[in-house]
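Title: [Solved] L1 transposable element RRM domain-containing protein 3D structure

Original question kept below for reference.
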Amino acid sequence: MDTALSLQLEAIAGKLSKLDDINTIVLQLTQLNHNVSEMQSTILQQGEKIDKCVQNIYNLKQENVVLHKKIAELEIKLNSSKSEVFQEMHSRMIRERNVIMLGIDEAVEEEDQINEILKDISLGHINFEYVLRVGKPTAAKPRPLKVIFKNANDALKVLKSKSKIPREKFPVLQIKNDKTPLQMKECKEAYAEMERRKNLGENVSLRFFNNTPTIVVNSKRSREYNSPEINAPKNSRKNIPAQQSSSNRQGY
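Solution (posted by the thread starter after getting help):
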């Protein structure tokens, strides 16, 4: 009897031991399932990140295409600007030997008139090559007269001597340098800005530094020094013509 009971107890103990093994396996399987779930979640997250990276790469490629297009356009504009700058510099160099004279009647003999003006400003020894009228004829006023000298130095001497013009003889004569369209545009804009600031009460004037129009603030002393009556010859101060308004200024 005792032997049979012992055998039964041993059998039960063996079964219980197997149950412990099964429980251990179940726990291991549960942990494994949990780990698999975590790995699946991680894979999904990494997949989303990969999708974002792929989208970012695509966006970068598109931006790269746009940037290449803009760079090509900028290169075209740069080359065009270089060409325009070269043309502008070349045009200015050519015009350096020219002067523009305003207020010369078209009915007179132009070359004789120019020779007389050069003589009156103590430059009778300078010879010019030829003259030509600029623009279309109008009944309102004579067209500007372009005088072409042999070199830029002769033209510069004429410009520096324009203050010697006898106003009793040539009351409306003006001598200016020959400007390119870009220079005339810059002057027009500078005059407009000067007038705007004057209307606001500023005491300003327009000066030229290296042929570039620059607005400067006048001191009281410089305003008195630059007045027309002080700068005019003594014998002609009473006959100074009224200055042209900004609306009547010619492009030159």
